[in-house]
Specification:
Elements: E1 10-11, E2 26-28, E3 33-35, H1 37-54, E4 63-67, H2 72-88, E5 91-98, H3 102-119, E6 122-127, H4 143-161, E7 166-168, H5 173-185, E8 195-196, E9 204-206, H6 214-224, H7 244-253, H8 257-268, H9 296-306
Parallel strand pairs: 4-5, 4-7, 5-6, 7-9
Antiparallel strand pairs: 1-2, 2-3, 8-9
Helix pairs in contact: 1-2, 1-6, 2-3, 2-6, 5-8
Bound molecules: adenosine monophosphate and zinc ion.
Length: 314
């Protein structure tokens, strides 16, 4: 789960740009806007809708599965899509992975259950412990890499089992910038795409929060009074996440800089391959798509069963 300390949205004096109200006005530096809470909620949902429409992410009749961690981003996504689903005519359900990290994961699940029951959205829970898996350091793999590999491969398997036509994840503006930045640092010149088309055994994936700064997701949950799971993951380390601070620092100096940077990158960098879409080769044991003889899940299963396999990190 992504952890961060983005500066919260500030309440300020002044009037709402849209309706002129003076109560609880929020300052959105990213958009050079002041909005009252009701106008903020409409603004937020309109921005999600605009991203969905701009990239043709969802259509009428789609069966959309939202991957919900319980954190601010996927929670805001779940609630915004629930409303959009009514307007656009797609069906929504939720998928949560219980990550087998003791009471932390149990508390996490409790919050997700509460969120989904309040939203009236059907929730499927998958417990990785039932598959003999755990999030921990495995030879050569950081726990976050293990967690990511498990979630990535289970997402496709479970979404197929749920008969989904689309999976929506809560990757945010900062996630996209971070990914692009890490790519640039290793001389890979491509951006993660907002839509990954379906492929053999791979469900179509969309990122409706592609242009959404994370603190706006938190503010949306606050304003809607939705419970959010905010505990720090026990396996979390600053590695990989600290880079996001670079973008917050830039935003402090140049308001709206993050979004402008992404828009500029989109004009210059092509969308590129992601680890998901590399194959068409398949795991020799379970038949899932992978670029290696054994998929990450089968390698990890061997490791947890025998402690002997030596999976190669990706
Ligand atoms: P992460 O790899 O933690 O950045 O997560 C990427 C995306 O996967 C998030 O935006 C969520 O949509 C989804 N996700 C993260 N954790 C979980 C979880 N425990 N269960 C279901 N979906 C998750
Ligand atoms: Zn496999």
């Amino acid at each position: 789960m992504s952890e961060d300390n983005h500066p919260p949205v500030q309440q300020v004096e002044g009037r709402c740009r849209i309706c002129g109200a003076r109560t609880g006005v929020l300052r959105l530096t990213e958009f050079n806007l002041k909005l009252c809470p009701p106008c903020y909620l409409r603004f937020y949902e309109r921005r999600v809708r605009r991203a969905v429409e701009k990239h043709d992410m969802l259509q009428e009749g789609d069966r959309v599965v939202v991957a919900v961690s319980g954190g601010k981003d996927s929670t805001a996504l779940l609630y915004a899509l629930r409303r959009l689903g009514v307007v656009m005519g797609f069906h929504l359900s939720a998928l949560h992975f219980h990550l087998n990290m003791g009471e932390y994961s149990d508390r996490n699940l409790g919050v997700v259950e509460e969120q989904c029951s309040r939203a009236g959205v059907l929730l499927r829970v998958v417990r990785i412990g039932d598959m003999g898996l755990r999030v921990q350091k495995v030879k050569g793999w950081h726990p976050c890499a293990v967690c990511g590999a498990i979630k990535r491969s289970l997402l496709d398997r479970e979404a197929r089992g749920m008969d989904a036509t689309v999976v929506a994840t809560a990757h945010t503006l900062e996630d996209i910038l971070l990914f692009a930045f890490k790519n640039l640092l290793s001389r890979k010149y491509y951006l993660p795409p907002p839509v990954l088309p379906a492929a053999e055994r791979l469900v179509r994936k969309v990122k409706p929060l592609y242009y959404m700064p994370e603190r706006l997701n938190l503010e949306y949950c606050r304003q809607r009074d939705i419970p959010v799971f905010a505990e720090k993951c026990p396996a979390w380390s600053p590695r990989g996440h600290a880079l996001k601070e670079v973008f917050d620092h830039m935003e402090r100096i140049i308001p709206s800089g993050k979004l402008q940077l992404l828009l500029s990158l989109r004009e210059t960098m092509p969308e590129g391959e992601t680890t998901d879409r590399e194959p068409p080769s398949y795991c020799t044991r379970c038949g899932e798509p992978t670029s290696q003889p054994l998929c990450a899940m089968c390698q990890l299963s061997d490791w947890f069963a025998h402690g002997s396999a030596s999976p190669a990190p990706r």
